[in-house]
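Sequence only, no structure available. Ideas?
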Amino acid sequence: MKKTPIQYLFVMEVNNITIVNSQGKPRTSRRTLSELHFDCEVRSLVCLQDSVLAFHEHGMQGRNLKDNEVTQEVYDHTRSFRVIGSDRLIVLQSRPSLSSKSENNPTQSMSALTTAPFSSTPCDLHILMGHENT
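Reply:
I predicted one. Tokens follow.
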């Protein structure tokens, strides 16, 4: 099996993504951007052929690599989402949002990444389809 060298890395910082080459310099291309900005705090990324899906606590936002335009968006403040697989299929786990409970009790601050409370609540699993040609 022949391995191809990594051409680009996606560097994530809160809600900005910078695409760099193997030397750490921003990618230069006439066809695609080297930086993307999202409207949310990005927790996970899934790179597609012509876009990037950025997952945040309450959903997902997709951006086109050519013009940074929003291509897809899902937002549900009543649910907390977490990417649990993105090899061939994108699999998400969702649970009722804990942030609404935290607003009523300021001493109880939990996030979707907190393992103990998140794992003790029943969850739903979602398989994303149609995000690219297969």
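The chain has two helices and ten strands.
Hope that gets you unstuck.
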